Amino acid sequence: MKFLPKNRSVRVVFITTFLASVFFVLYVLFALYVLPDIVKSYLERKAGELIGGEVHVGMVETQPFALALTVRDFSVANKTVKLTWDSLYVNTRLSSIPMRSIRLDELRVHSLNIALEFDEKSSLSQFDSAKEAFLAQANEPFYIEHFIIQSGTLEILDKRNKNEQPIVIKPIKPISLKKFSKQYSPDGDLEFDLNGAFFRWNPSKREMEVRRLDILQFSDFYERHLPFVLQNGTLDLRTVYRLVEEPKLGFELENAKLVLNNPTLLADSSKFAMKASSIQFGTLQFSTLKRTISTDNIILDSVNANYSFIKVPMQPPPELFEFIRHNDWLIKIDSIQTKQASIKLVDSVAAPAVAYNLNVERLLLTDIANHADNPVHVHLLSLLNGSAELDLQGELHLFPLQANGTLNIKDFPLIDLQSYLTQATWLTLRQGLANGTFDMRWDPATDTLLFSGDMEIDSLRLLGRDNNNLVGMQQVGIKGLDAMFAPNPHLQISTANVQAPVMYLTRLANSTANFSQIMKQKSKSGADMPWDIKQINFSRGTIYLTDRNPATPFSQRMTAVHGSMRNSNLSLQGKMGGYAPFSMNGLVKLSGKHPQINLKAESANQDLVDFSPYSGRYAGYRISKGQMALQVDYKVQNNKVHGKNHIIIQHLTFGEKVESPDATNMPVRLGAALLSDKDGVIDLDIAIEGDLDDPEFSVGGLIWKIIKNLLGKAVSAPFKSLMSLVGSNSDPENIVFAPGSGYLGQEQIEVLKNLSQALIQRPQLQVDVRGNADSITDGNVLKEAQLLGTLTRNMPAGSKWTAASVKKPPLRDALFAHYRQVEKKDLNLGDANEDQLVQTSEQVWNELLIKQKLPDNALSNLARTRSQNIKRELINVNATLGDRIFVVDDGNLSQPVANLKIREY
Q1: Burial label, 796 (beta-carbon count in 10 A; 0-12, 13-18, 19+)
Q2: How many CB atoms lie within 10 A of CB 726?
């Protein structure tokens, strides 16, 4: 050929290049125009042979330079199977040619749709035949680097069961199989990476193994069939499977080993959530034909569960409850147990919400079957909130859903219950540990939660509204506790043994009691939980009484308090101030709308010095000495108070004076002395009535008001009060004397005798006697006596002379003689008759009487004589009164009476 180069070497290169170019052109032409038809024809024939149905291939496109082809609009169908896809892309490796095996870099399918329809004439054997034919054709090994199902659906319909709904699977994410390979043997394994998970399948042995499979790949299935949502996690499975078709299409797993890694389960995400490092199923059996699931054991490792309930008693997640009740699958699990579990229960009923954290040491559920009469046995052993030990053993009945069992709890911190107190009270739980054993019964269908059993509370301490101490108890032993939380809540306790209780009763500065500020204002729709304690026993108790109203706060301590309350009958004893005995007995009902009280109490030997803050405020004096005994009888019905108080006070002695704006201006010391008997005893009977609904009502205020009235009456008429002791109505405050006389008449002497007897009964009283004289009435009498003394100086002794005696001889003659001597005047009475002489004697007497001059101390001596004579008469009755009767020499000269004044000793 002339066009060939002459040089041999160049000619060889030229011819080789030319042939290669021709071959390349032919290859391209073949790949572009011939090969598509060959592949299309081959697919239609082979697919028809394998499936036994009509096959359609829309188009085959080749890419000769990439060794790739695309099959579009493929469909194959027979009576059982219908398979279609929009496009199938295949990218072949060059190494497939020399290795005489199928080696693909990529196999990608778009819109793969598979529909399986079974009826009485259908059989799975045709799939087995197709599979065997395929394996026989592909007995050489093959390898696919990346097999992707981009999108598609799988629908299975079994017409042999008219009630059977079609199974439809719509993958949410593309399915990616990497390193998909088959070994040389027809019985070899298929291994590939399925969306990041390892997958091994032996079709001949019907064995399947998967590791690290993302659970979300099946979200479409479990969202429609399971009562919870699997939010994340991976799956490990190793099993032998079996496909069955009689009496309908079914799928079974035998001796499966299943592990869920790091799953998160949600059942109504606002209420229940659970995480675990793994959920390990033992030997799992599964059959869609028999609709059974069974396993010998499930182990939950490192569980973290949260459940929030908004109702008491707790309701199970509604989806789970409906799944258990209505599911026609038979589920049987021999046991479920946990390792390193933590459970958090949140009670959203309380405000703020209460959280209970369970660090589970052991949770074991056995004999679980949803369609069986036998109950599920439950054993929970856990730490509650990091410290309390909880042991729950019982039975769970699924149909109808209810539970019963025994709960043992040890060292439960009561402060975890603070939210429940906060809703209705101002109480603060500062400390306290509870231990108890309870029988429980729970029936969600009837909303019933029952507790019964015994418990002990140690080191209980409650604070009031202002975080001040309110109640403390060393130990409370509760026997026969019976509580229902719904639908008719109530609390009953047979016996409560309270050891070493400490109670702080405080009257605050605003005049309210600390215990009256426990309860918060309740809503109109709120209902109290009825409660009843049959018997309460107290021992070694202490009660602190405090009143912050006086300027100097009052405090008192009651110790050795012991007693009981049985069926509302109270019997209580103790010691006031650590030594003075007291007791209370009667009926006390605090439950119900209004308290009902019929209570008697008494105390003895109570020192009054502790009450100095009250006496200083209201009486104006502190108490330096005194004792009190008390007997009270109170009845409270419909908030009406009727009280009787018998108060006995001994040797009341007031001390220093206290400046107080509330102090009375009455002489309380005198009044107390007047009310005291000869032994220094004040014996009072005081009755009070009032209304607890009246904000101004105060028992102490009423008693003080009555005592003040008694004191007022005593000091306003002290002698009448004193003389009443001896049954006399006389008033010896003023002793009237005859003008000019210091001598007592018989009537006055009798009055003074009675006064002396009365003073003997009131030894703490003193009497000041103040003698007085009148300068006119007493002075005239003294002047007459003085003038008569002058006139009768030389008269015979033994005669009784008066002013009338001067009208007759011989005293008239002495009068005229004295007049002539003193006045130096002659009376010229030589011819006077008797009438003239009498008239003249009266004139002379009066003239001389006017001119009489008394000694300076005459009237004061008379006043002193009168007071001394009174004292003498009082002492004559009882000489012991000598140091209690005082003559006071500061009388006045304007009244002819002596004044007596009582004062305290």
Answers
A1: exposed
A2: 16
